[in-house]
Each structure stands twice: as structure tokens, then as C-alpha cells.
Amino acid sequence: MIRVQREDFDLGAELRALSEGNHQIGGLTSFVGLVRDIAGGAAVSAMTLEHYPGMTEKQLADIEAEANRRWPLDASLIIHRYGRLEPGDQIVLVACASAHREAAFEACHFLIDWLKTKAPFWKLEDTPDGGKWVDARSSDDAAAARWAKT
Amino acid sequence: MKLLYFAWVRSKTGVAEETVTPPDEVRDVAGLIGWLKGRSAGAADAFADLSVVRVAVNQDYVDLDHPVALGDEIAFFPPVTGG
Question: Would you call B35 an interface residue with chain A, using a CB distance cutoff of 8 Å?
């Protein structure tokens, strides 16, 4: 399931809903991304996440479908927020449920790595020097490349 | 065709979206970018370094040699920084 929303999410409620009623699920993993208050040594008071409506949902759905092809998942969920966020705020949730932990851990790791290089979001940070677009990191490309099929 | 610009690419072009009808000789993404660069200083600035511009045609990532057609939705943006 994919959700792109301005609103915050309740981690506990989302995880409960994901596994509720399915007693085949033996493992549930989640990753939550948070806004940090410092970036590249500069203080960040807030950030605004912009995205490409339509393509965002399409890319996230493709990524989720790929995870479901690679691992035997009983359920998966991606929530990504947009709009203005402050340090400590939740940005993204990825959660995966499977019969066993290996698939749940690996699929969750895969989803966040791929999302970071494919989902069309851009962060504009408010810094003491004004708004600054965050640069993509080559380490994120390397993290995603680990999951490339050989 | 409908063009969309995001993040600092939009800041440089000065518009978020526009509908254009390029000449017939514009057949692929590279040709379209070349034509756009000739239309405005903002576009010339936005497309000065193509190593930091990503392109999507109809919401899928494409390379510069991907064909473009009049009904396409074509987006230009920096490498993504979500998550």
C-alpha cells in the first residue's frame, strides 16, 4: 500500500493495521525517516518536501511491486509525507510483514534504499543563509546499487 | 507537449509548467533540451549541466535519447532527495 500525504502518521496504528487479522505473519519490520536539525554542518530550522504528484505514486507502486516479487511478503506499506516539516518530524515510513524475519528485514531495507534514489521528492532546507536545495548523495546511489540484480 | 519543472530546475526556468509545440526536428529528449535552451536564458541556465538533471517522460525515467511526442508529459528535475 502506498500513501503520499501532508499529514503525520501514527507508527503504532499503522503497524497494527498492517498485520491485523493475518496470523501467517511472523515478522514485521519498519523504517521511519526523521527530519534532522543539522545538515552539512549547517543548522536546519525546517524543510519543505516537494514532489511530483502522479509520478511519485507510480514510482512507489513500482518499487513496492518489485519488493513483492523478490520476497514473500504478506503485507507492505510506504507512507511518504510532503510539505513543511520540522526537526524531529517523521518523513517516511516503510514497513514489511512476512512469515519470517529475513524477508521482512531485507525487503524493508531494499524499499528505503530504492525509494531514496527513485521516488521524485526534493528537500528544500531552511538554513540561516536561506533556502537550500539538498544535493543527492552518491552514497544513496551506492546503497541502491547493492540491490541491483546480477 | 506538457513540460514540468521541479525544485531548482523550476527556480531557474522560472515556470512550474508550460505547454509547448516544438518544431518537427525535435525528436528526442536531447533535441528538446537543445531547443528549450535557445528559447530562454533561464532554460539555458537550468540545462547547463545535464549530469545533474533527471528526465521523466510520462512519469518514467528516461535517457537523453528517448523519443518525445506531442502528447507527452515531460518532466525535468534534479536527482531526487526524498526518504
Answer: no
